[in-house]
From TrEMBL:
PROSITE patterns: ABC_TRANSPORTER_1, ABC_TRANSPORTER_2. This is ATP-binding cassette domain-containing protein. It holds the Pfam family ABC_tran. SUPFAM superfamilies: P-loop containing nucleoside triphosphate hydrolases (SSF52540). It is found in: Cell membrane. The keyword ATP-binding applies. GO terms for molecular function: ATP binding; ATP hydrolysis activity; branched-chain amino acid transmembrane transporter activity. Residues 318-565 form the ABC transporter domain.
Amino acid sequence: MWINYLDQALLLAALAVSVNLLVGYAGQVSVAHAAFAGVGGYAVCFLAGLHGWPYLASLAVAVLVTAVLGVLIGLIALGLAEEFLILMTLAFSLGIIGVLATFDALGGVTGITGVDGLRLFGKELDTPADWLIPSAVVLALVFAVCRRIGESPYGQVLKGIREDAVATRALGKNTFGYKIGIFAITSGLTGLVGGLYSGWLGQATPSAYGFPLAMAVFAMVIVGGNANLAGSIAAGIVLTMIEPVLRQVLAVQSTQAALVQVVLYGVLLLLVMLVRPQGLFPERARKVAVPAPEARAQASPRPEPPARTPYDEADVVLRAEGLSKRFGGITAAKNIDLELRRGTITALVGPNGAGKTTAFNLLTGTVVPDTGSVTLNGAELVGMRPDLVVRAGLARTFQDVRLLNRLTCLENVMLAVPGRPGERLGPLFTPGRGVSRADREAAAEAMRWLEFVGMADEAATPADALSYGQAKLVSLARALATRADVLLLDEPASGVDAAWVETMLAMVAAVRDEGRTVCLVEHNLDVVRQLADHTCFMELGEITASGTLDELTGSARLAEAYFGAQ
Ligand SMILES: Nc1ncnc2c1ncn2[C@@H]1O[C@H](COP(=O)(O)OP(=O)(O)OP(=O)(O)O)[C@@H](O)[C@H]1O
């Protein structure tokens, strides 16, 4: 009796672990995963139960079918905002269960029942005790896979997506690809668990995989703690055991016990969300070790700054021609021509709403222009995904900083370091030390950029504990760590307290002295005067004047329209 419940607890815990990888790490809330488990369960009962397939082969099909289903549904649902994702996956979950219940071959509304005689490795799975080891092995396997992914550079990218998908994409990550990938992996894992669950139940029925199961799994994830896989196991086992304890220990009737269990799930969920929204166990923060000073020194020493070339003689690195963008009736960008020259700083100035941030969005591919072209070292960027634009060598910072709050400063910057093998699944599951070695090197490189901006002492500090000025410096380090040649800095000094402005100015000048090309949007003309080699004036989406700041401020029209008010 108790062993039977333990089997169930282990399998539900495995479901909770896989859903936690999706919800807790990647922040993608899916209600469809209980239904994916149902697809796995039906696949096994249909193939092994009704058609005599070997159990292992039918489990493999269950994993494959649910992973493919995950990709298909992910492609439709994951482009949506998070609140719509919940609704969309709820709709898919109802649809999947509804479709399964319509096929006569799958037993219609009663499902496939009376499945027995399943065998694994020659052993018949008959009694609850027979299911204990397969259930424990599946839980261990799901835990190992989810932990490997979650606590790796891949998992760091997932957490980045959870914190701020736009900022993570601006660090060169294909966020949509990662979302599809993790949706498919967790779907496949739930399909596997469903295959075991239905085998253990001896049936696959629409009611077993409906909304109550989805809620039970959510309760386990939330009570156990987001991104805490061990917490999900503990919560999975404890919550599943409520019903048997009510029945066996407190002698509550079985139908009442099931009802009380559902009510308790609800109460627990409410309590946890009100009192401890992060779950009973906090997020299991992966400790990225702060590199020792020797390790940092070895990480690609900075080359001597090249001698500076006068602005007019410097090569054009980035050229925008005829960029235009309308949003409904608003012309946010009109025929913008812009040249950024190697090793120089260009400033974009102009009144609020002039289109400066839009210009950055158009250059980086965040917004697709209606017309025009952008070339970086001769290569066309228009039409390229924003993460590929970063990889091509054009990175940006944001006016509102957009650090990944629950990640440390070091993790924020590490995430920008390109080419980490642990961000791909293949190397993660290949034996060898390549992933951890590359990770140590990335940490040393990230540390070098934190040192560069004077933030090395805050490496282990979560980003949300920084002052605004510190956060802007870390965001600069993060842009530098992308190794992009051209940096677009959106108001690097705005909102920064006086104590940090000088540091920020020195940093931006140092970035130029390294030979990188900078374009900055800035309202503070003192900052522009100190930094910019060239200034473009924007109004109503157009660049209407350019030259040195003194030339622009000398224009009577501009002085009256804008500079006079400064
Ligand atoms: N996604 C969008 N949808 C609709 N309108 C937009 C969008 N993005 C920008 N705009 C509009 O385009 C115009 C230019 O905005 P933008 O933010 O680029 O100006 P800005 O010069 O950066 O302003 P600020 O100095 O205040 O940051 C504004 O009228 C703005 O409302």
